Amino acid sequence: GMDEWAALAASEGDDEPAELREYDPSAIQKYFKSRPLTLLKRTARSGALLGSFGLKLWLDRKMLGDEPSESKKDAVDKKRAAQLRLTLVSLGPTYVKLGQVLSSRQDLLPKAYIMELRTLQDAVPPFDDALARRILDAELGAANAKKLALSSAPIASASLGQVYKGSIKRSDGSSEAVAVKVQRPGALAAISLDIGIIRSFAEPWRRFKGLNTDLEGLVDEWGRRFVEELDYGREAANGERFRVAMESRPDLAGVVTAAPVIKGASTRRVLTTGWIDGQRLDTSEEGDVPRLCAVALAAYLAMLLDIGLLHADPHPGNLFRTADGKLCILDWGLVTPVSSELSTAILSFIAHLVSKDFEKVPADLDAMGFIPNGKREAMEDAGVASAIGLLFSALAKGGGAEGFRAELGLPDEAKIKEIRKELKGVKDMKLRREKFLEASGGAESKVGQLTRDLEGIQERYGNIFQIPSYFGYILRSFSVLEGIGLASDKNYSIANECYPYVARRLLTDDSPETKRALEQLLYGAQGPKAALSVRRVKQLAGAFGNYSAMTGPPATGRSSHDVTAGTDLSDSRGTNIEKGGKKLSSGAKEALRLAFDPKGGPVQDILLRETARYVGASVSELAEAAASAPATAFVLSLARAQQNVVDGLGSNRPPLPTALELFAPFGRAARQTEADRETLRVANELAELFGSALPAERAEPASNAEREQTTWVEVPVLGEVPLPRAPDSSAFAFDAELARELLEMAPELAPGAQAAALRLGATMLDQAAERVAAAETEERLAALERER
């Protein structure tokens, strides 16, 4: 068992080797070169244990055949799962960590393996209590150690340490319930030894496989974080940083926390925190567990995209539901830093993935470091874009490995078994490939297209991807979270579940990079010059509302899962009524605050831009309608006659402008364009969209015929003029309760509304100037064309 690492520690003395406390590959190599027997024994033992288990699996496949009975398969799986757990425990902390990650992937391993590996989360064989108390005395000093009263045995034992429940005496004589974690002796030497062995194989393996990825860099990143995890002083600082960051956030302050650190009773090898009353998230039977799973994902996204420090060990044993309904994240030893540049690139990637902008994903992958320097031209290749689009659309669909297979049309397990039978003994790779493609839908299927694209890419560019060294721990964290989600929902899509948080970040962050990502999402590659996408607005608004509901009290009439999954703007009845009968949801209130923020922001910028566009388009439609009135032709003929007379005077013309010259800028500004017609269409769709989300009873919407019916009004001089079409007002109806809630918010929103009104005026003037300039350019080009 893992007590062999205690033996290793004893051979080196009770203290950790000083030269191994900071990760340094050369120091590890030097340390164990002076201990060749330890190095050889460990290499041989690791190879023997892993090779023996692999051989047993190979023999099982030979003995059971292609179609074993379920009972036989289950019996063998159960036996091998128990052997795998014991093998990982015998191999020590490094391999136990791997088992913890695998224990959350129900979509990758049979159930028997999952059940066995889950015990590695908090039920690894403990080391001797007397040794633990000896470490405690050495770290805290005898006097401080006496202030701690501990349970007679550990309540949990994991790969790097074991935890005792106890109490600590305060200076005023009272006591506080605490959890005390004591580091497993020999862990630092064991981990350093394993990392040194694995690293020695990294570069030869990379060369053998012809990979772009810096495997040594990956091992170094993994090893660095692993060694840092053994410094409980760092762990205490990480946990406190996260707890303070969560308490300062209005969205997550009331729902996510970390255990408070007792600094006077914590050192490098001992960590004491306040006791958390609660249950593991995966064993709790409370009704809010699905919601807290979504909150966990939001918390990890906050770490990844905002805080810059990602908890890289999110197995179910570290996620607790507290007695008061909060999510508490434990064990902050294994973390990885995330730069602001990387956070921005990941934010853009997730936004493009969920909104199905797959043509932008290659650029995102380049920004995140997945494309080697010499291969960037490949990202412009249509085949690369096609292959990436297919792969990531399948990944975004959800359902883990099974969902990915189904989306691409890959054959299921039963079909694969049939193919294996048919191809038994067939060596011709072309024939094997054709048979697989036939089972996947033929040459024109998704798999066929993907195969052609990938073969073309390989032929033209070779291997175009690499795994950046930072990515291992990010992948580990979100892989485990996806596994937890798939345990309760086989169609779980972590990409879609990320969208509510991403929506909030896009709509609240006014940094230039995030603004650009938001504009590309809502307007497309051309940015704000293009028309607003109503579909994307609906997605974004629905996700934003879902996030607000998820981090606040769950809405009545909905399940916790409904609050977090999907991107509909409202439920099937068009209602969004919160607990207590409120008509305005927390999401709607936050959206109003963002829209009327006195400081401005991305939401207000888009709102003002689209309002100004709508005003300009409405004026242009009114001007066009007025131009069709009978009296307009007469007035224009008089104005043109005046212009002809003045032009005929040449240099003797009076210094006053003519009617046409005086009103020319207004005419240019009011000229209706195709963009104006698109703006009116978008405005009508938005009115229908947001009108459908209002909780009031609505009148029957107008028919298409009624909507297209023209209304004429009498205007002095011009006579009868058709009114421009306004957005369909049938979607809106007066609701006294809603009006009252809006009036209650009026004092809060008034300063921002005044500032927004001033900004709207400036925006309208800017857009009018742009319209005039565009019209003048069009006139000059038309004149040049006539001269030709």
What does it look like?
There is one protein chain. The protein is an alpha+beta fold and 788 residues long. Helices cover 60% and strands 7% of the residues. Strands 1, 2, 3, 4 and 6 form a five-stranded antiparallel beta sheet that branches. It has a four-stranded mixed beta sheet with strand order 5-10-9-7. Strands 8-11 form a two-stranded antiparallel ribbon. Strand 12 and strand 13 form a beta hairpin. Helix 2 crosses helix 9 and helix 13 (340-354) crosses helix 21. The model is unreliable at 554-579 (pLDDT under 50).
Task: Give me some keywords for this one.
single chain, 788 residues, 5-stranded antiparallel β-sheet, 4-stranded mixed β-sheet
**Helix segment count?**
31
Category by helix and strand content: alpha+beta
Q: Termini separation (Å)?
A: 91 Å
Helix percentage range:
55-70%
Mean of pLDDT: 77
Count all strands and give the number.
Answer: 13
- C-alpha Rg, in Å? 33 Å
Percentage beta strand: 5-15%
Largest sheet: 5 strands, antiparallel
- Globally, the shape reads globular
Low-pLDDT ranges: 554-579
Question: In terms of topology, how is this protein built?
Answer:
Blueprint lengths: L2 H10 L12 H9 L2 H29 L5 H22 L1 H10 L8 H8 L10 H12 L1 H5 L1 E3 L5 E2 L3 E9 L5 E9 L3 H23 L5 H15 L2 H16 L8 E2 L12 E5 L3 E3 L8 H19 L1 E3 L7 E4 L4 E3 L5 E3 L2 H15 L6 H7 L14 H16 L2 H9 L4 H10 L6 H11 L6 H16 L9 H18 L5 H15 L3 H12 L10 H18 L8 H5 L21 H10 L6 H26 L2 H19 L10 H11 L4 H19 L11 H5 L3 E4 L3 E4 L13 H52 L1
Parallel strand pairs: 5-10
Antiparallel strand pairs: 1-3, 2-3, 3-4, 4-6, 7-9, 8-11, 9-10, 12-13
Helix pairs in contact: 2-9, 3-4, 4-5, 4-6, 9-10, 12-20, 12-21, 13-14, 13-21, 13-22, 15-16, 15-19, 21-23, 23-25, 25-31, 26-29, 26-31, 28-31
